[in-house]
């Protein structure tokens, strides 16, 4: 059998084979019905695979080798900051004082953990230029919703119930208009200028007395810094609105610029991106939110505070939007982020952004002749190229992304942002070497050449992966989520 044709674990099953060894029961047995209502009790034993421990280990180890991650290869996923996760973070997160505490313990018993969280809040507030930070939100989009709910509470507390619109650029992350809608607002699009930045005249047109906020990431999703941000903040503030900062692209500006200094009132951060918490596969995430002083009363409660050299959770917040997550955030990710900040220090974090921007610009200039470069100015941490040239030859950006898999790399983000035709968005991060950047650029240049000379090899890719082209539409709309055993 070819190694690519790995059997399912059900197909490896042999009756009577056991892969575990449990100790004898040393507590009194109880009738199952005393613990679980009868309607929830199985009438038959579950049909589980019967394999040995060694078979089980080899099976899941083989499956893990089919995954791609930052520890196994280059992962230039634009807008996701898939940077290396330092292993010292894992060591610290496993300290007994962090790993073995329980969220229901008394505050006096977990002062060390609370001090760590408080210090992380203070560090993030300083890095972003905010006045106070909450660690509760579980991820970036959750942070967006939390920030918008605070903005909504602020307006309503001031008797301003007509601020129903949130302005979002046409190049924004898809979570921005989604979060605005879930928070009860109407999403209004502001157009980009031909230079890729927000069109100030269009912003003036859409801002009015009903504007609750402008949501923006800076640098934007095209990897370009919104150089008119101070003027944009003035336009929105004079109309009575607030500025919300999507922190997904914070990796580009640490130590160089702070959202609070640009005029933003609320910011969320992705600790699983900029601050090296591992992410992917649905989690774990962490999306702390920082606010300026006039929004502090609306922070989710409880609020972690320090009083008389002790730390405690303050529930007496009558204007709070309420709790947004059980307990107080994804603690393990917070530990990793704090470890990263303390390891790097102020100058180290500044160098992170400096190197991320340098890497992105180096790659962009190497690739500008092989592809269409829609924006000629220097980028920040990420950049976009277009496959319009290859599309005329019958090769789509999707085809090229599939072909990249044959060379052992994860493809970059494709077809996003939506305002760039045949878009490919690349973010190398600061952690990759020049050798890796050159190797990846060489691959893309080779694929561009294949599109001209041998388009079929690109159109039919991938050729070396476990499975080839999938019916992606059916897989997304009608996924088979469980094993169907043949009768």
From TrEMBL:
InterPro entries documented for this protein: GcvPB (IPR023012), GDC-P_C (IPR049316), GDC-P_N (IPR049315), GDC_P (IPR020581), PyrdxlP-dep_Trfase (IPR015424), PyrdxlP-dep_Trfase_major (IPR015421), PyrdxlP-dep_Trfase_small (IPR015422)
One GO term of the biological process aspect: glycine decarboxylation via glycine cleavage system
PTM sites of type N6-(pyridoxal phosphate)lysine: 273
GO CC term (a single one): glycine cleavage complex
Broad class of enzyme this protein falls into: oxidoreductase
Required cofactor names: pyridoxal 5'-phosphate
Record keywords, A-Z: Oxidoreductase, Pyridoxal phosphate
Domain Glycine dehydrogenase C-terminal, chain residue ranges per copy: 353-454
Coiled-coil spans in chain: none
Entry's EC annotation: 1.4.4.2
Highest taxon of the lineage: Bacteria
Reactions accelerated catalytically: N(6)-[(R)-lipoyl]-L-lysyl-[glycine-cleavage complex H protein] + glycine + H(+) = N(6)-[(R)-S(8)-aminomethyldihydrolipoyl]-L-lysyl-[glycine-cleavage complex H protein] + CO2
Span of domain Glycine cleavage system P-protein N-terminal: 33-300
GO molecular-function term, one example from the UniProt record: glycine dehydrogenase (decarboxylating) activity
UniProt entry tagged with the keyword Oxidoreductase: yes
UniProt family annotation: Belongs to the GcvP family. C-terminal subunit subfamily.
Protein task: The glycine cleavage system catalyzes the degradation of glycine. The P protein binds the alpha-amino group of glycine through its pyridoxal phosphate cofactor; CO(2) is released and the remaining methylamine moiety is then transferred to the lipoamide cofactor of the H protein.
Record NCBIfam families: PRK04366.1
HAMAP family: GcvPB
Quaternary structure and partners: The glycine cleavage system is composed of four proteins: P, T, L and H. In this organism, the P 'protein' is a heterodimer of two subunits.
Protein name, UniProt field: Probable glycine dehydrogenase (decarboxylating) subunit 2
Encoding gene per record: gcvPB
